[in-house]
Amino acid sequence: MAPLDSVRRRPGHRLRRAAVLLVAVLAGLIALPGAAVAAPGAQLNAADMTLLNGVRLAGLWEMPAGQMAAEKGRSARVREIGAEISRQHGVLDQLVVDAANKLGTTLPTDPTAEQKGWLGEMQEARGTQFDQIFVTRLRVAHGKIFPVIGAVRASTRDPIVRKLADEANKFVGDHMAMLESTGLVRWQQLPPAALPPAQSDSLLAAARAGAPVGPSTGVSTTVVWLVFLAALGTAGLATYRMLRRG
Predict the structure, then answer these.
(1) What whole-number distance in Å separates Cα of residue 90 and Cα of residue 31?
(2) CB atoms inside a 10 Å sphere around CB 61
(3) Domain locations in the chain?
(4) Which of 219, 170, 236 has the alpha carbon at shortest distance from 33?
(5) Could you tell me the fold of the domain covering 46-188?
(6) For 34-66, what is each residue's pLDDT tens digit?
(7) What is the number of other CB atoms lying within 10 angstroms of the CB of residue 228?
């Protein structure tokens, strides 16, 4: 038979154990559901890097191209927008460098071979020929990066990349408008618009089925709460039984 003092201590001891158990479960209930939501933009994907590299490369060749236009453009308008595009690309280039530093990634340091070829073409051109080459090359280049910006802005999970896309979108839109204001854009020679495949049917089907649209790597908040409510109920039942034994 257990000593009398030991018997008398049992109810209080069980109460303390029950309290500790409830505190532990409640602490988990508060902390873990929040931890189950993945932080957005934890890792860059290929689309994010395409935007970062594209914006950087654009600045590396369009800044010197704009400077050339400011110095040797035949028309006053070409000289004016050349200087402005060069200046604005200096601002945008600093923005993409800052974004890359925050993200811990590296950027190109030289234009591509194709971009260097465009610069060489401009260096050899004179007069109205230069004006036409400058406007044509830059307008085509801006038209290529413009849809990339929109696609990344719509899908990126990283807030730094999203902010850069917003900023780049404004600059590129302004540059296209400036180039078009020269009257030298040859619209028939621009590459046709490349639209992504239609996804309306698959999106509608997913919505009707209640399925998530696109890939999902996180844990459903509903599932987390159900698991913890079940755990809380189990803990409560265990506590009740411990108290009844006392």
Answers:
(1) 45
(2) 23
(3) 46-188
(4) 219
(5) Ferritin (1.20.1260)
(6) 333 333 444 789 999 999 999 999 999 999 999
(7) 17
